[in-house]
Amino acid sequence: MQPNTRPLWQRFSFFLLPLMASNILQALSGTFNSIFIGQMIGVDALAALATFFPILFFLISFIIGLSAGSTILIGQAWGAKNIERVKRVAGTTMSSAFVMGLVVAVIGGIWIEDIMSLLGAPENIRQTATEYGRIMFVGMPGFFIFLVATSILRGVGDTITPLFSLILSMLVGVILTPALIQGWWGLPQLGVNSAAWAFIAGFVVVLLFLFFYMRARNMPLAPDAAFLRALKPDFPLLGLILKLGVPAGLQMVVASVAGIVIVGLVNRFGSNATAAYGALNQVLNYVQFPAMSIGIATSIFGAQAIGGRQIGQLAAITRTALVLNLIITGTLIILAYLFSQHLVALFITDPEVIALTEHLLYIVLWAILPFGWGVVFSGMMRASGMVYAPMLLALAAILFIELPWAVWLSQTSLGLSGIWIAYAASFTVMLIMQASWYHFIWKKKKIEALI
What we know:
Elements: H1 8-40, H2 43-59, H3 61-79, H4 83-119, H5 123-138, H6 140-155, H7 160-182, H8 193-216, H9 225-230, H10 235-267, H11 271-307, H12 314-338, H13 340-345, H14 351-364, H15 368-383, H16 388-410, H17 416-440
Helix pairs in contact: 1-2, 1-7, 1-11, 1-12, 2-4, 2-5, 2-10, 2-11, 3-4, 3-6, 3-10, 3-11, 4-5, 4-6, 4-10, 5-8, 6-8, 7-8, 10-16, 11-12, 11-14, 11-15, 12-15, 14-17, 15-17, 16-17
């Protein structure tokens, strides 16, 4: 690995742009599914997908945490030029993810009906959401491997291969979802379930692509004999991965539980409100995912700098990320405000639901900017192995601001609008807490590599 002499902002931007494009494409894949389902089947079908989303988010939370822990170690090992250690971390993470995927598939397949009942899914969409969810659970082992594979590639500084993977996955979904809805080319007509089967087909194709592509290019994490040996779990190493990853996973779990509570609150306002919730999330993803990408890039650049014993770069990395969040996320927020009606109309045809979704979007959209800044501060702290403080601060924002305010305000004259006021308040409070901890505590801590 030759030293890179380009300015930091250029290196950060070249790494960030494919990562950001990948996350946007991931959102775009879900968007196309929502457009196909909403326009070709109807509002109730879109509401069924929206009801299942928080459940999926809850069940993949720990795998995202596992990936976050492994990415920190892989980034530090890569910065230290320790390829053998990189493969050991990646192999242990991959095998653990597969086992977790099997567990999730079994649990979800058995209890999906009870989960939907507990959520209070509207009666007119409950059976549809249950069938869709059961198919999604079948694919979880492969999907978990897909998530880990793209995550560990980013840990070694490769954001191009995950981008190619997501383009391929999206193309499969864009072609297969409408084909299964309409029964083109002799395929069965599967209704809402078309999106689930297309989802599974997409990541299966990508995993096959990665296997042959990485071997052909002899990439550091290609599935060669050394990597296959590394798939045998290294339990002490797994313990360190979990120590770093479980706090991030726990934060995701709490956020997803909060999301499930929010869906329960939204469902009380009827299926139109649930459909508006689904469409609103689709629009927010395009603004929120780039902000999250900047946080991920901050963590990876920080981990690589720590592994390479270049501690002096950490402050500059943080400043660069904060400025890029202002420029990129701020621009997207402005565009979303300007074209909100057109964006919402992509998913929904009912004028009443369009107006409701646009109103809710106005309330919460601006708050993605402080959300992005908070993610930058927490990402840098996590890169050094400080994982509990960022988690606890984020949990405090969720448990003491977002949830109680959402419950309380939704029962006032604000009604449905109160839920998104609570979201905006929690994002703002989280930024204040993360920035304070970063400046007054983390910056005084001695930073050392974990490997």
